[in-house]
Each structure stands twice: as C-alpha cells, then as structure tokens.
Design goal:
Helix content of chain A: 40-55%
CATH class of chain A: Alpha Beta
Shape of chain A: globular
Strand content of chain A: 25-35%
Strand order of the largest sheet of chain A: 4-3-2-5-6
Radius of gyration of chain B: 25 Å
CATH architecture of the largest domain in chain B: Orthogonal Bundle
Structural class of chain B: mainly alpha
Number of helices of chain B: 14
Bound molecules: fe (ii) ion
Distance between the termini of chain B: 64 Å
Number of domains of chain B: 2
Strand content of chain B: under 5%
Order of helices and strands of chain A: EHHEEEEHHEHHE
Number of strands of chain A: 7
CATH superfamily of chain A: SCP2 sterol-binding domain
CATH architecture of chain A: 2-Layer Sandwich
Order of helices and strands of chain B: HHHHHHHHHHHHHH
Number of helices of chain A: 6
Largest sheet of chain A: 5 strands, mixed
Largest sheet of chain B: none
Distance between the termini of chain A: 15 Å
Structural class of chain A: alpha/beta
Oligomer: heterodimer
Number of strands of chain B: 0
CATH topology of chain A: Nonspecific Lipid-transfer Protein, Chain A
CATH superfamily of the largest domain in chain B: Ribonucleotide Reductase, subunit A
C-alpha cells in the first residue's frame, strides 16, 4: 500500500518499524532528541519526531516551529527529500551524496536549523540511529504529494 | 617503588592482633553503627536501567556537594564516610573545585557514551573492502588522511587520561565520562590505523600537526586543555569527519566516519558544557581562557598542514586531474569555512562571544574567502 510523503502516517510508519526493529536500534544505543523535519513545497509541512531511549515515541505535525522545543530541524524542498528516499530505495542505504550528513553538509542542500549548538550537536551524536531510521523506507511504496 | 606508606601493616602488631581476634570470631561491628541517611534510588525509566542520574540522591548527589571539596584528598567516593580518627593518604588531586571540571549534563553524556559504544573489528563492514576498486591516488590520499587522524586520536586519548587522576574522586561523573572519551579515542586511533593497514598503509606523520597537538597536552590547566581539545580541536575534527563521510571512497569508510562522528560530537558537547559551567561559575578565569585560546587557535592552524590539505583536496575532487583538483579545493574551502564558523558559534553559546572578534582564525577565514573569490 502506498504511503504519502509528506504525511504524518509516513513518519508514524517509520516509528512503528523502529519498534519492530528493536534489536538494531538497541545496538546503536540511547537516542534522545526532538528533531524537526521540514518539507518545503507549494504548502510547507513541519513535523516533530521525538526520540526517547530506543524509540520514536511521538510524531506530530506542527503549525509553527515554536509549538515544540526542537533540538534541530532538517529543512529541504520536497524534490530533495524525494531524491534522498529514491537513493535509499536503490540498495537499502543511500549513495554517499544522499546521507543525512552529506545532504546537510556539502553545498547545504538540506539546511540544519538550530538555536543551541548543543541541540545541533545531537544531530551528529545520534547520526547512525537517525540514518538507520530513514533507511527503513527502502521498501516503502511512496506516493509523492 | 616510590611510595613508602606511613604504616607497615605487615609488622604492625595492633593490626595483626586485631585480625587474629576477628578470625577467632570476635567481631566488633563498629562499622555497622554508622548512621546513614536513607535514600531512595528509583529507576526513572526502566528502559535505561539504573542510571547515574537515578543515583543523584541525598548526600550522594553532586548538587548537595560543596563547590570546593576540602575534606577528601584520597579515593573516597562521594557520600562515603571518612574516618576522622585516621589520616587519609593525600593522593594530591589538584582539581578540587567543581568548576575546574564539571559540565552541565555530564551524567547523561556518560550514559550515552556507554550505550553507544561500538567495536572496530566487527561494526565496520571490512569484508566489503574487496568489493570496491579504489584508484591508487585516492587510496594513498585516504591513507595520508588516516595517518594524520591517527596522530590526532592519540592526543585525544592521552589528554583525558592525563588529567583523570588530578580530579578529586568526588567528581566521579567527570572522571567516568573522560574515561569513556579515552576509550572512544583509542577506538578512533584503532579504526584509522586498521583502515590504513588494510589499504595502502600509513604515510607521512605531520610535524606541524604534532606541534599543534603538543599544545593540547601541555595546557597548564584542565579547563585550558578541555577548551582546546573538546571545543576547538574536536569541533574542527567533527566537521572534518562530516566532510570525510562525504568524500569516503566506499561505504566502508562512510560507515567508519558515521560512527566516529557520533563519539566526537559527544566530546564536543561535554567540552561546550564544561566551558559554559566555567564561565557561569568562575567568570574571573575569562581573561586567562581568552589568552590561552589566542595561542591555541594559532596552534590549530598547524592541523591545516600541506599534506593533509592536499590529500583532502584529492579526495574531495575524486582525483588529481586539474578539474578534479579545482572541485576538491571548493569542497575543502567550504568545509574549512564551516569549521571556523561553527567554532565561533559554540564559543558564543558557552559565553565567549569575543572569540569572533579577537581570534587569529579570522585572518585565516578572510584569506580562505579571498582565495575562494579569486
Ligand atoms: Fe576522536
Ligand atoms: Fe573526540
């Protein structure tokens, strides 16, 4: 069944899979951060994903970034998110140019917005978990908005 | 043997008589009489097990401990009973003030470090190395980078190890955290050495880089060493690892950098929180820290040594042809600018916004911008 991106169901499904793949995420260790995901397009969408211990415990769509205290937010146009997920789909892990780290580092195609550098550093402290989280989409049938 | 105790227990007759008495069954149970405040240690979140923060209770809690520790110069754990009748050996800790070492949230960083450990031998997909054919120039450039990183990681292992025994044993959380850092850094030195040896081998050691690293190890105080290593040095290395993941020749190196990056970011976070704690609680050291950073930032430019720079350019442009070198210069220039900018932002957040005005790195940044525009 196709899952629409961006949508709250898309991230809920990822959170559900994270719980199913408990062994993989427990091996990676505690992950404690509230991460924002912003998808820019005709109508922008902003989601808050709360990671607590080994799980993604809360997913919600925000009307404004001030609704929740976010450690950092990854912002990119819909087309770039699409390229990233399509790269993941090819082999299960993204090509070097499409990891969360590379996208947000080289050429700043994906923006990392943060207020406190400690919140910003959480993106790197939990990078392996966050990458594994998005890599779970490799067998998603995605319906693009 | 350089320490001769004040008491020779093997010949102390009182002690021997007492032991003989105990063995006959004459116990005096004096140690049972010590009244202890009852504390409740509760696992706040069973998924985390029993955490350091769960154990911050009553007289054992750091928040109930004075800023300056005067009573203990030995190895007593915080909250233990000190026997007033006997003289505790003085192990000579020089860091007896909380602001000398403490960082906000250090307990959480210690737990995070323990939970996110990994193993170089088994968590990097070494078996995939055979699947990829890396051109010689890229492989040698990568191994040159691994050589410098091995040197950097050695110092990062030695600095926490050097300072641990200078810390009063009441600051166990900091000692515990920097012990995790030492093992993290030893693991990083291991991964870069293994990767180099599994490929083209180790190349040129960096004299300039080692001068910079000596500056970290020779810092006069722990706080100076910490601000140099954790905030300045590791902040720069974190950005370097981020770039290295991107320019990695294969998914093997990509995974390697993803894992080292996580550890590095945790060390930076602790350094930032230590500097912040220091500035909040001991603002009088500000001129001293600034004076130290003026020199430390000069030292740090030693890490931009020609061998490392060239190897990064070759990796960034994926080869040695003129157009690849041009691309490589762009990639490296962009990340160097980012290194400096992120450092200023961290310094500002920790309470040292003046670094942005007085730093010798500014001139370097200006030169890089000028080079990029020419
Ligand atoms: Fe390291
Ligand atoms: Fe480190």
């Amino acid at each position: 069944m196709a899952i629409k991106f961006p949508s709250i169901d898309f991230f809920r499904e990822l959170a559900r899979r994270m719980a199913d793949n408990a062994a993989e995420f427990e091996k990676l260790g505690f992950c404690d951060t509230v991460m924002g995901v912003k998808v820019d397009g005709d109508s922008a969408h902003l989601y808050a994903l709360t990671f607590d211990v080994f799980d993604c415990t809360d997913v919600r769509e925000l009307a404004s970034p001030d609704d929740v205290e976010l450690d950092f937010t990854l912002e990119a146009p819909l087309a770039l998110w699409r390229e990233m997920f399509e790269s993941i789909k090819k082999t299960g892990t993204p090509e070097p140019a499409y990891t969360l780290n590379s996208l947000s580092h080289v050429g700043d195609r994906m923006k990392v917005v943060y207020d406190d550098p400690e919140g910003h550093d959480k993106f790197y402290r939990f990078m392996a978990t966050l990458q594994a989280f998005v890599d779970q989409t490799s067998d998603f049938d995605i319906e693009w908005a | 043997m350089s320490y001769y105790g004040t008491n020779d227990f093997s010949y102390n007759s009182d002690f021997n008589l007492r032991i003989r008495d105990i063995k006959k069954g004459n116990l005096d149970f004096g140690w049972l009489d010590d009244a202890r405040e009852t504390v409740e240690v509760r696992r706040r979140d069973p998924r985390r097990g029993l955490t350091i923060e769960d154990c911050e209770v009553g007289p054992y809690a750091i928040e109930n401990t004075p800023e300056v520790i005067r009573e203990n110069r030995g190895l007593a754990p915080r909250g233990a009973i000190l026997d007033a009748a006997t003289v505790q050996p003085d192990l000579g800790p020089s860091l007896n003030k909380k602001s000398d070492v403490w960082g906000y949230r250090v307990q959480r960083y210690w737990e995070e470090a323990m939970s996110r450990q990994w193993n170089v031998s088994t968590d990097v997909p070494w078996h995939d190395m055979d699947k990829h054919n890396i051109p010689d120039d890229l492989e040698i450039a990568f191994c040159q980078l691994c050589t410098l990183l091995s040197e950097v990681e050695m110092i990062a292992t030695d600095l926490p190890a050097k300072w641990s025994h200078h810390m009063n044993s009441y600051f166990q959380e900091v000692k515990g955290f920097i012990a995790t850092q030492a093992i993290d850094e030893a693991r990083h030195a291991e991964v870069f050495r293994k990767r180099a040896l599994a490929g083209a081998g180790l190349f040129r050691a960096s004299v300039r880089g080692e001068h910079a690293l000596k500056g970290i190890l020779e810092a006069d105080s722990y706080s100076e060493g910490s601000v140099f290593l954790h905030v300045l040095g590791e902040g720069f290395i974190l950005t370097l690892f981020r770039s290295s993941e991107f320019i990695s020749p294969t998914p093997v190196e990509q995974r390697m950098f993803q894992l080292v990056m996580q550890d590095e970011a945790r060390h930076v976070s602790y350094g930032l929180q230590h500097l912040k704690y220091l500035m909040d609680n001991c603002p009088e050291v500000r001129p001293q820290i600034n004076g130290f950073l003026d020199e430390a930032e000069r030292h740090l430019t030693g890490l931009f040594n020609p061998d490392q720079l060239e190897s990064m350019i070759v990796l960034g442009g994926k080869g040695t042809k003129p157009d690849q070198i041009k691309k490589g210069i762009e990639v490296v220039g962009a990340f160097q600018g980012k290194q400096i900018e992120e450092y200023f932002h961290r310094a500002e957040r920790a309470g040292l916004p003046e670094r942005r005005e007085r730093s010798p790195l500014l001139e370097l940044q200006q030169r890089m911008i000028a080079a990029a525009m020419s």
